[in-house]
Design brief:
- Keywords: DNA-binding, Transcription, Transcription regulation.
- Pfam families: TetR_C_1, TetR_N.
- InterPro entries: Homeodomain-like_sf (IPR009057), HTH-type_TetR-like_transc_reg (IPR050109), HTH_TetR (IPR001647), Repressor_TetR_C (IPR004111), Tet_transcr_reg_TetR-rel_C_sf (IPR036271).
- The protein is mainly alpha-helical.
- Among the domains are: 41 residues, Homeodomain-like (Arc Repressor Mutant, subunit A); 155 residues, Tetracycline Repressor, domain 2.
- Helices cover 59% and strands 0% of the residues.
- It contains 14 helices and no strands.
- Helix 5 runs antiparallel to helix 7 and helix 8 packs antiparallel against helix 12.
- The longest helix is centred in the middle third of the chain and has 32 residues.
């Protein structure tokens, strides 16, 4: 039996942005098909993914949408993966990036704006979340988004060691929240119902059929707290509260002097270093 070390290794997935491929909007070789370019192909890919989902997407389906042959598409991209990566970067430009250098003390608002934009992107394009884990995400728009996140977290005053954790806490939370919300909306659309109708129907069925389940009974108070407002408002409220808790957690790990340097806005922003959390300041931390 062959040992794991002896087995041939699969090459790591590369990127359309790393392989010296033709720049966007030009063909790779010879005379390009009339009326077609990479921008148009990428835009059509985004439309199809939004309308039909990732599972149904194919180069043949794309060619039919563009009213060209499949081979015409391959003048501009080598593989389906290249095209998906281009589409993934195209939608990333929808996230509005705050000016993280103008007023560093406004890091809370910067994080909130970036988190909200990321959530909206994931909800608006449910196919994005599975693809994020498939590619390196090093197109120009994803790199700009990444830089804005890094600068916003640097503005907090956390050490570089803790900045990594802050980025993971906030944006992996947003990834999970936005992915679940997007999938919920897809189920709602497939059922031909509104969010409120679907939620009432689902909750009613669970309460009726699992009335004796301890977890369901224990959650009764939590569910009652969600009875006010629409389901859309519930999503927004839960997201805002969760993000506030994340920001309070970041504040709890800051040196009090850093918080004081934020001025009045920082003092009103939430927990201080003496609040909830580890209770360990940056000075006390070994990192």
């Amino acid at each position: 039996m062959a040992k794991a070390a002896d087995r041939p290794k699969r090459a790591a997935r590369t990127s359309v942005w790393l392989e010296g491929k033709a720049p966007r909007g030009t063909g790779r070789r010879g005379a390009q098909p009339a009326g077609l370019d990479r921008d148009r192909i990428t835009a059509a890919t985004v439309r199809l993914l939004d309308a039909e989902g990732l599972a149904k997407f194919s180069m043949r389906r794309l060619a039919a949408e563009l009213n060209v042959t499949a081979m015409s598409v391959y003048w501009y991209v080598d593989t389906k993966d290249d095209l998906l990566e281009l589409a993934l970067d195209r939608v990333a430009e929808e996230v509005r990036l705050p000016d993280t250098e103008a007023v560093p003390a406004e890091w809370r608002e910067q994080l909130r704006e970036l988190a909200a934009g990321y959530r909206d992107l994931l909800v608006r394009h449910p196919w994005v979340s599975p693809l994020i884990g498939e590619f390196l995400n090093i197109g120009p728009n994803w790199l700009a988004f990444s830089l804005a996140i890094q600068r916003a977290v640097q503005n907090t005053g956390l050490t570089p060691y803790r900045q990594n954790g802050a980025i993971a806490a906030v944006f992996q939370f947003v990834y999970g929240f936005g992915t679940i919300e997007g999938h919920f909306l897809a189920r709602v659309a497939a059922a031909g119902m509104t969010q409120d109708e679907y939620f009432r129907d689902a909750v009613g069925t669970v309460n009726e059929e699992l009335a004796t389940n301890e977890a369901v009974r224990s959650a009764a108070e939590l569910m009652a707290s969600r009875s006010e407002g629409t389901v859309s408002e519930m999503w927004a409220r839960d997201f805002t509260i969760a993000l506030d808790l994340m920001i309070a957690g970041i504040e709890s790990m800051l040196d009090p002097a850093v918080l004081a340097g934020d001025g009045e806005r920082g003092a009103a922003g939430g927990a201080t270093a003496g609040g909830a959390g580890t209770g360990v300041t940056e000075e006390e931390s070994p990192r």
